[in-house]
Design goal:
globular, 7 helices, 2 domains, single chain
Length: about 325
């Protein structure tokens, strides 16, 4: 049985949803262009829910009332001293695109995850409508189309079906307060796989090698900022500095630098490079596990809304390695 002192009571609400789609006409999305999924969802969401139909939300009369602004153009609190530090408030979502494949053939099944925070969880029906509409419009090279066949709520590794494509109905679900803890026993070795580019900055410079203290600092910052905007209270758990002390890093596989790309609003290419690969942590890892479990859920580092900074942890080695080029 896990000692309660190692429990992490997450002070903000979040839920993970898995969207399952059936490809109708081939979809091609190069590995490096994975951010296109978030951009496409954003564009269609705005087409459906923007009231004034304007390109720039600055000065809009509906700030504070518009669901698009709340999600994709989140406004800072007037008294938020961290706005300058983080440049903008944390967005209340993460879009995790498919990890494998660049071409999805007709009748193939594809899934992606959407993590929602705070009150944005109540906007799940709006996201379902957005994903359905995007499937009709098409995405990727050649505008391949798909059909939404299911939406699952992911809890404790289990998928709970919510969406029925036959009736186009969405089942209700209860919010759950997250309490994360080790699975039991003493853990002395742990693998961390960086599934998507991990972008960590130290002294305004991107790190080319994984540094656990910096990773934990950025996770702590993200937790604090998400709590401020989408939660309440304070972080209830062991000190994040204490739990990472005395832990050493080993690298069984060479980490590589992978660039993801997207087109900005001015149609100018933007590159999001980061670390992918695997490291092994050794030491007293039991108190660290709750924090790493949370990192699996909410992503860490820069550009998390696009699915960057996604990790997976295991006590066993991974056979799957992220593709280097595509």
């Amino acid at each position: 049985m896990c000692e309660k002192k190692f429990e992490l009571h997450v002070p903000f609400q979040y839920e993970r949803f898995r969207f399952n789609v059936e490809v109708q006409t081939p979809i091609k999305i190069p590995l490096r262009r994975r951010p296109i999924l978030r951009d496409a969802i954003c564009a269609v969401f705005k087409q459906i829910f923007c009231v004034k139909r304007v390109s720039d939300c600055d000065g809009c009369d509906f700030i504070g009332k518009c669901s698009y602004i709340a999600v994709f153009e989140t406004q800072p609190f007037e008294d938020d001293p961290d706005v300058r530090k983080f440049s903008k408030p944390p967005r209340p979502y993460v879009v995790n695109p498919p990890l494998e494949g660049t071409t999805f053939d007709s009748q193939s099944m594809v899934c992606f995850d959407l993590v929602l925070f705070g009150a944005t969880i109540d906007l799940l029906p709006s996201f379902v409508l957005t994903v359905i509409t995007l499937g009709r419009k098409g995405i990727g090279t050649g505008k391949g189309r798909y059909k939404l066949i299911g939406v699952d709520l992911i809890r404790n590794g289990k998928a709970i079906p919510l969406y029925d494509p036959e009736t186009r109905s969405l089942a209700d679900f209860s919010r759950e307060k997250k309490v994360l803890a080790p699975n039991g026993g003493s853990i002395q070795s742990l693998y961390i796989q960086f599934l998507t580019p991990l972008r960590l900055k130290k002294e305004s410079k991107l790190l080319r090698e994984f540094q656990l203290p910096v990773f934990m600092e950025r996770l702590s910052d993200r937790m604090a900022h998400l709590t401020k905007y989408y939660g309440s209270g304070s972080i209830d758990g062991p000190s994040i500095v204490t739990v990472s002390s005395g832990v050493s890093i080993h690298r069984p596989h060479r980490n590589i630098w992978l660039e993801w790309e997207r087109l900005g609003r001015e149609r100018i290419g933007m590159k999001f490079g980061g670390i992918v690969g695997t490291v092994v942590l050794k030491g007293n890892l039991t108190p660290l596990i709750p924090y790493l479990k949370l990192a699996e859920e909410i992503n860490v580092g820069l550009e998390t809304v696009f699915g960057l900074g996604r990790i997976r942890i295991s006590e066993e080695s991974f056979s799957l390695q992220p593709a280097e080029t595509a």
